[in-house]
Amino acid sequence: MRIVADSSVMYSIEQGAARGMKILPLAVTIDNETWLEYEEITTEDFLARVRAGAMPQSSCPPPHLTLEAYDTEEEVLHITMADGLSGAYGVAHGLAKQAPHPERVHVVNSATLCAPHRALALAAVELAKRCEHAADVIERLRPMIASAHSFLLPEDFEYLRRGGRLTPLAAKFAHLVKAAPVMCQTDDGTRLERLAIARSFKKGVEAVVSELEKRGVGEGHFISVSHADNPEGAGWAMDRLKAAFSGCRFGVYDLGPAFITQGGPACIAIQSIDLKAFPDLAMG
Question: Which are the contacts of 15, defined by CB distance < 8 A and separation ≥ 6?
């Protein structure tokens, strides 16, 4: 069984291969020049261009790379980032019909991105070792997909507004915000909506901690903090999360260019997913 994921899992092609999966890199464009993230442009170079005033865009993995991943005699399980936050799921679903063996290609909407998406892909690799069919792997992943929660603390709200990933109410609110907004993924995973308006970044993290507690996050869950060149903020957030959720596992990650295109420089994502079924899953 071949496990495929797009680079929302924050792995390069080489890093993914070392972990048993095939990575399809998302693309970013600045001034009509396009690069594959992690392969042709680094996060550091990308951020330098954006901070110099460039207006970036992101797009799905190139179709020819997706079709190459589907060109195999094996069953293919392709776990894409959240439908609605990206067009990757819809594009992959269409391309699967062009595969040499379309009946063997299974495209799954992860309904998440970044660290929880990574957890799902890594879990799929492990499940593929002991499940005969992709359908069995998908069935075991569904509770994990349903357990994921994502929150975003943007420094510049304009990136979210331009990217169209907001609910209509949140998009209207974007013109008015003067404080520290905290966004959360909608229940269907397709958009971001306002969770809270905080007076400071630290108050925003407290709002996320409170919401995670309300949602029953606790022992056996994995909590991540991913950031766009904001190690100080990420470090403070992680310390606070560790203090609040002592029974969880934790990880800090650097966001890739495609996500930064939507969240903006210095943004911080706080996410969780239930990994009780995979207590030894290596999330590095």
Answer: 23, 38
